[in-house]
Amino acid sequence: MKNAKGNPNNGGNNQKSSFLAPVNNKMMKKNRSRLGGGGLSLQAFANAKSKNDGYNPALIKKQREFYKNAKYVNKYKKSQKHPNQGQSSSQATELIESTSENREAGERHSKKPKKAYRLEEIYKQKQEEEEKARREKEEIIKAKKEEKEKGEARRKAQKKNMLKRTRSGQPVMKYRIEHLLQTIQGSKNSQ
Does the pTM of the predicted model rise above 0.70? Predict the structure, then answer.
C-alpha cells in the first residue's frame, strides 16, 4: 500500500477528499450568480435575438413626430370649421349681424382666423428673409470664384512668361525684371 497514511488534508483517511467538492460547488454557484444564472442555450439565445421587443428609438421618435403633427393638423381643421367657438352667444350674434352688414356693404368677410393670417404672414416673411440670405450667399460665392479664376489666370500667364527661354536656353530677363519691379512697387505702396 502506497498511501497507508492517507492524505494529511483529509485526516488520514484513505478515501478521496470530500472537502474539495463543496468548495468547487460554491465557486460555481458564485460564478453562476455573478453571470446571471445558468446561461442561455444556443436556441434560447437565437430566439431572444430574433424577437422584436418593440424598442427602436428612431421609430419611436418618428411616430411621436407624426402624432404631434397630426394633432396640430386636427386643431387647425377644427379652428377652420369653428372660428368663433370660444365666443359667447351674444358676441356670436353680434358678429353674425356685423358680417351680414358687411356683406350688404359689398365687403367680403374672411373666414380665416386672425391667428392663421398672422402665422401665414410670419411664414412668408421668414421665407423672404431666407431667400434673401441665400441670394447674398450665392453672390459672395460667385465673387470669390471669379476672383480666384482671375488670380489663377494671372499666375498662369506669369509662370508662362517666367519659363520662357532664348534660343541658347537662357531665361528671358525682361519678364523677370518686370516681376521684380512690380513686387518692389507693391511693397513701396503698402508701406
Answer: no
